[in-house]
Design a protein that fits this description.
Largest sheet: 5 strands, parallel
Mean pLDDT: 87
Number of strands: 5
Strand content: 5-15%
Low-confidence stretches: 2-11
Helix content: 25-40%
Number of domains: 1
Shape: globular
CATH superfamily: SGNH hydrolase
Number of helices: 7
Distance between the termini: 29 Å
Structural class: alpha/beta
CATH architecture: 3-Layer(aba) Sandwich
């Protein structure tokens, strides 16, 4: 259920490469209803949607050289949920995310990281989730926030367990996608993410 969004580019471009998993790709939804497409409508530049069902941080690391970054200035990464569900350690996922971020920054691409963790997840943990592991993942995302990376968290606005926002246990319906996209749009604008300065 993980998603990644990348925004990449050259100095004169604001093209955005969005790399993620089913959380952002609009699982079962129409293309126009996905988180990526809702965000895309809000801004004037092009978003390149490269979201893949089941995408993980470790798989992304192996595929970094396959991305065309020639016209990309920004990257929004939403990864980690599938790693978490597959019981990958938070340490390994953090190292993979760091590899991805360093790779992009070396190419002068500004990076934003989207965390799948919602505040409500700490209130109710179902049989597929382990609270201790969730805390470790939360701390992994905090590491990036403490190292001058824009991290967008609590994307469900504390309503992850609200079934009226989801298609199934993990994926947003149209209403849920709007809530997630609104959170991302607000953070990108408030934090002036598209100012090219790092």
């Amino acid at each position: 259920m993980i998603l990644i969004i990348f925004l990449f580019g050259c100095s004169n471009s604001k093209d955005t490469l969005c790399i993620g998993d089913s959380l952002f790709s609009g699982f079962i939804l129409s293309n126009n209803s996905s988180v990526v497409q809702i965000v895309n409508k809000e801004f004037d530049y092009r978003i390149i949607d490269s979201c893949v069902l089941g995408y993980t941080a470790n798989v992304c690391v192996k595929q970094l050289n396959k991305f065309d970054l020639s016209n990309i200035s920004f990257a929004i990464i939403e990864l980690g949920a599938n790693d978490f569900l597959l019981r990958k350690t938070a340490k390994a996922t953090k190292e993979n995310l760091l590899t991805i971020i360093n790779y992009l920054q070396e190419k002068k691409i500004k990076v934003c990281l989207v965390s799948f963790i919602d505040s409500s997840m700490f209130l109710t943990i179902d049989e597929l989730q382990n609270n201790e592991m969730l805390v470790e993942y939360h701390e992994a995302f905090e590491f990036f926030e403490n190292n001058n990376i824009l991290v967008i968290s609590n994307i469900w606005n504390g309503r992850f367990y609200d079934d009226t926002l989801k298609i199934d246990d993990y994926h947003p319906n149209e209403k849920g996608a709007e809530i997630i996209a609104s959170k991302i749009i607000t953070e990108l604008k408030t934090k002036n993410f598209f100012d090219k300065k790092h």
